[in-house]
Amino acid sequence: MLWTAVGVVALAFLIGLEITARHYGERGPLSTQVREVLFAPKPGPLYGGLALMMVVLTWRQRFVAAGVAIGVDAVFVLGRWACGVRVPEGHLFGNGALWAMLGCAVFAITRRTGTERVLLLKGVGLGLLLVTGRKIGDSWLLITSKTRPTVLDPYVATADHALGNPSWLAGRALDAIGPAGSNLLGLIYAQLAVAAIVVALYQLRKVAAERRFPRHHLVRTFLLIGLLGPAIYMIFPVVGPVFAYGPGASGTGGVEWSVANLWPHTPPPIAMPHPVPYDGITPRNCMPSLHTAWATAIFIHTRTGPRLLRYAGTFWLIATLAATLGFGYHYGVDLVAGVVFSLTVEAALRTFDCGWDRSGLRLVAHGTAVFTLLLVSYRWLPVHMAARPWLFGPLVLLAMGSVIHGYLRTTKRWTSPDAAPALLPEPQPEPV
């Protein structure tokens, strides 16, 4: 009954996003997903989803699924080439991965029973969730740009004086490093999902042998952050310093929309902030920084891995923070809010796994209170924060530090929820 209720709510949410996106003249997540059965999709998310689905398969089944995906893609690519069909840049193939996942779902329903059917359907659901989650995020970003004609960047930029305007400092540092540093950080920023898939595959590497999923893994945190984060965008719409105080990026924004062309060489003056209008294309996706939240989740989930994975998680977090600031996509206070948001979501999931542990509930309440207090301060106290950086800067960092300390202290008391059970017997053929 619980999973049925979750499915009904999720379907209603997807239908609502579809209707809203259609209202603004764009495809929603449902129609986009259905369209990719035949039309050229972006291959990265689909093959990432296929890789996640394969954690429930044996090695022989993995080779079969990969072969089917590649074969179907070859047919589609040759067919489009023969018919002279033009496809968008970067959308040459990917249908095969979706066909392979849907084929496994049909196989699970028609040829498997009991726990084996459930396990295979969970694997398919995990892969499709990764793909659908990206489309839900795209629809959310469209809605933020269409429904929030004004942005609150002057408030956040003023509050950011309490931290010393780190985006302006990082932007100038990145300019001094040159194109090599920019290209490296740009690659890391763009491939955050790839890093998450690598960590998730490590965490789920024993699923095929143990015939069960661990109670907690990175994909859950990653998807929940992506689902809840855009709702905060609607409450606190912010576009970022390169847009509000610079020339824009990625084909949106421009000096004509900016408050002043100041980023990254001249920090904005301290003045009474007010909402400002911005274009109807640029997503209002800064508060909180979800890239920071996701990189923090990756860092947390690599702590129990081997040394190389721990080093990679640390490097990815530091590089992501540098990229978000250096490219002018976020203010410093966005990053603080992103860390608190990520730890609160992670704590909520871990608390659920531990049977609503009382210490976990206190941690979730504390993280929620700190996150709310940060947003209220950015909105209603930015001038006071800018005028007294010696007071509010340490207070903001201490608030974030209290959540970090609470998370470390609480999770140390919890036993690992992933104790390996006895292996289930191999599935036997059903009697005729």
Largest sheet strand order: 1-2
Tell me the series of helices and strands, N- to C-terminal: HHHHHHEHHHHHHHEHHHHHH
Q: Which percent range describes the beta-strand content?
A: under 5%
Shape: globular
If you average the pLDDT, what whole number results?
A: 89
Enumerate how many helices there are, as a single number: 19
User: What distance separates the N and C termini?
Assistant: 32 Å
Which regions contain 5 or more consecutive residues with pLDDT less than 50?
416-425
Rounded to an integer, what's the Rg over CA atoms?
Answer: 23 Å
- What structural class should be given to the helix and strand makeup? mainly alpha
Quick one: biggest sheet? 2 strands, antiparallel
Q: Got a strand count?
A: 2
Please outline what is shown here.
By secondary structure, the chain is mostly helical. The protein has helices at 2-23, 29-35, 43-53, 59-83, 95-111, 114-147, 153-159, 166-177, 179-190, 192-203, 207-210, 218-235, 241-244, 290-301, 307-326, 332-353, 358-380, 382-387, 389-413; strands at 150-151, 276-277.
Description of the structure:
- With 432 residues, the protein is an all-alpha fold.
- 68% of the residues lie in helices and 1% in strands.
- The chain is built from 19 helices and two strands.
- It has helices at residues 2-23, 29-35, 43-53, 59-83, 95-111, 114-147, 153-159, 166-177, 179-190, 192-203, 207-210, 218-235, 241-244, 290-301, 307-326, 332-353, 358-380, 382-387, 389-413, and strands spanning 150-151, 276-277.
- Strands 1-2 form a two-stranded antiparallel ribbon.
- The longest helix has 34 residues, at 114-147.
- The radius of gyration is 23 Å and the shape is globular.
- It starts with a helix and ends in a 19-residue tail after the last helix.
- Mean pLDDT is 89; it is low at 416-425.
